[in-house]
Amino acid sequence: MNTEDRELHKRKSHLFMLLMLAEADNEDSPLEALFINMVAERLGMTPEEVQEIDKKPQDLTLVIPKTEHARIEILYDLLFLMKFDQDVDQSEIDLIHRLAFRMGFRPTMTQEMIEVMKQNIGRNVPKDSLLNIIRKYMN
């Protein structure tokens, strides 16, 4: 697999994790779909490509990025997707814990970040709150 294919696979994997989270609570949320499409656009992908990933998840394997920055970016996207519809479900929390652990993050750090998100449903997350948690655990 060449570099370009690897990068595309990483982006698809990123979106696949978001799609898994959106489906974790068995509810279709237009807000979650909007958020996923915004992330796709940021990653240089189209809504049609997101639909293709959603229709054929068996064609993908999860790719855990090697860089800490890329893993944190995915974790942030998962956390913000969880709260985007203003309804945090236990199945979403459980999936974020599993994915974060696979990406190498401590369960206690993940839980603290989830708590911050839950405390800020319906409003903006304080700018440095998640970053301060990361600093606490990454030093």
Automatic annotation (TrEMBL):
Tree of life domain: Bacteria
InterPro entries: TerB-like
Name of the protein in question: Co-chaperone DjlA N-terminal domain-containing protein
Species: Roseivirga echinicomitans
